[in-house]
Amino acid sequence: MQLDVTADVFRLAQTFTIARGSKTEAQVLTVTARDGDARGWGECVPYARYDESLDSVRAQVEGLPDTLSRQSLQTLLPPGAARNAVDCALWDLEAKAAGVPAWTLAGLAQPGPMVTAYTLSLDSPDAMRAQAKANAHRPLLKIKLGTPDDMPRLQAVRAGAPTSRIIVDANEGWTVDVYADLAPHLLRLGVAMVEQPLPAGDDAGLEGLERPVPLCADESVHDRASLPALKGRYDMINIKLDKTGGLTEALALKAEAEAAGFGIMVGCMVGSSLAMAPAVLVAQGAAIVDLDGPLLLAEDRDTPLVYDAQGVHPPAPALWG
């Protein structure tokens, strides 16, 4: 088997800002797996928050042995972006070689479209109200908070999109006291869920805390080994393939989390349709889906995912799986 790694850049439709900074493009790595005439591919987004870079992830992939399977990969690489791209490439390769959809290989029911959140960029309250108004037709909006001026922004978004469901991503930017103070207002403004209010290393403070708005672990959950520490702190978990290290672990994490009583959110980094495609399989039946990466791009892969009023549709075989 041959693995090739290339770096690709996709321009964003507009500058995208969260509490940690802004970006104007999505920098991704594409892994292509070849075995004879069969080819499969996958995409990952190295994330500095997890001490990843394009160079470090490329080195992990290039260090893999020639003899490789999805099963052996789980122990050769840790959870993260490198394993994700390779794992998804191997799923695609196996599906193409067998002539069957990846969902069949995974033992899943045929997937359908899922309503996805649309993320509003962090900006001034007036600008966020304008963003919300322009996207008020969308059923689910996500806003990035985690700053001292969160309430004016949240109120502005609600004013701009009075009927949309709203979810909030605090990006580890709050404290227990800030969350406790904001919680009644979040409830009043119809916020359906809050992602990662506290830094991942400090979320023990959530134990026993009243949670009138459900809390979802993001940075605090990567794979199944993360789950035991989350009981009593979170109501949901956000599964991202770049954290789990691919579709294989993502499906296993989803099953174990559901058995443990957690609600499921399926999210993404800012990447192309290729990165979202396998996540659509994980997203089936999830309480919240946040696979809007391609909607933020000015350019995308050939044969991109279809987004319409029904949500994000499963990929065509020409794209993945």
From TrEMBL:
Record's cofactor remark: Binds 1 Mg(2+) ion per subunit.
Key words, A-Z: Isomerase, Magnesium, Metal-binding
Q: Which CDD domains match?
A: L-Ala-DL-Glu_epimerase
Could you tell me which Pfam families the record lists for this protein?
MR_MLE_C, MR_MLE_N
Q: Which domain of life is it from?
A: Bacteria
According to the UniProt entry, where is the signal peptide? Answer: none
The record's listing under Gene3D superfamilies reads: Enolase-like C-terminal domain, Enolase-like, N-terminal domain
According to the UniProt record, what class of enzyme is this?
isomerase
Is Lipoprotein among the key words of this record?
no
Q: Which GO terms describe its molecular function?
A: metal ion binding; racemase and epimerase activity, acting on amino acids and derivatives
Mandelate racemase/muconate lactonizing enzyme C-terminal domain: from which residue to which, for each copy? 125-216
Assigned EC number: 5.1.1.-
**Active-site residues per Swiss-Prot or TrEMBL entry:** 144 (proton acceptor), 240 (proton acceptor)
Q: Look up the record and name the cofactor or cofactors this protein needs.
A: Mg(2+)
Residue numbers binding Mg(2+) = 169, 195, 218
InterPro entries for the chain: DgoD-like, Dipeptide_epimerase, Enolase-like_C_sf, Enolase-like_N, Enolase_C-like, Mandelate_racemase_C, Mandelate_racemase_N_dom
Determine if rRNA-binding is one of this entry's keywords: no
Q: Describe the family membership recorded for this protein in Swiss-Prot or TrEMBL.
A: Belongs to the mandelate racemase/muconate lactonizing enzyme family.
Protein name (database record): Dipeptide epimerase
